[in-house]
Amino acid sequence: MNRRAAVIAAAVLGARLGPADAAGPAPSDWPNKPIRILVVYPPGGGIDLIARSLGKKLSALWSVPVVIDNRPGAGTTLGAGVVAKSPADGYTLLITDVSFAIAASLYKSLPYDTLADFAPVTLLNTVEDILIVNASVPANNVRELVSLARSKPGGLMYASAGNGTLNHLAPEMFKQAAGIHMVHVPYKGALAALNDVMAGHEQVYIGALGSVVPHLKSGRIKAIAVTGTKRSRVLPDVPTVAESGVTGFDVAAWYGLLAPAGTPEGIVDKIQREVARLAREPEFQQQMRADGNEIVASTPREFGVFLERDVAKWHRAVTAAGAKVD
Fold this sequence. Notes:
This protein is α/β, with parallel strands linked by helices and about 325 residues long. Helix content is about 40%, strand content about 20%. A 6-stranded mixed β-sheet has the order 2-1-3-10-4-11, sandwiched between helices. It has a 3-stranded antiparallel β-sheet with strand order 8-5-9. A two-stranded parallel sheet has the order 6-7. α1 (about 5-15) crosses α11 and α4 (about 100-105) crosses α11. The longest helix has 22 residues, at about 300-320. The protein is elongated.
């Protein structure tokens, strides 16, 4: 069994959380120099704005500069690779998203071990996703959409931001769970995919609720269901996929904070406590919920368990879809 396969197998068994970090409290003088947070996307996106908001608050709290370092590229693996090889002293952190878990199976090789080379700090939030269709599609709920797809195998096309993205793999999981066939049409980015669904060139899309909601009033698309385990505060009348008949369906994106493996436990715990406290401030929560996000602010161990399960879940999805990028 090769190294990558061993990581996936361990995740499936839920048997590892990565190497134990050094125990004990954080040094009394930590932090005493600038902290760098690598963001795996370009400036201006949702995860970048959250990183900058947290960075500003942490800088004021600890009286040291917190520098946001945008490192997009290689499907979010470039920035992760830099952090994995950085000193394990708490001064270099990674803020990433669900692509981190997907990449473990999507790429033949990575410059790091997804579960062994990082110390989980906190799962910041989950990002709600929604299943929509073009307004011309004669389906107003999941059952009608499934019936339509079964009556026209391959007649429905779903758009995505590209191979291996969440809005490629989530519809693949929906297809498998519902026993239907739809055709994948990849685009270069989520905005292009959503725009073409609104224009009627494709029929189906699963994407971030925050990016879709502003367009619902246009009448060009219809909300069918949210993809997580519970209804959204933003669209409380829209049911989940699971409660609509596709039992067990659960897809959600997320943002999380990690450090290099071996970062002292005391430093990891200190970062987690402060980030969790700041994330629960009313202003920050309001900012998150307006985009359809829910604060989690988990403990490091909880985030470690979550990562194992998420890596395993997306491994199954990537394998079933046959998704490849290299």
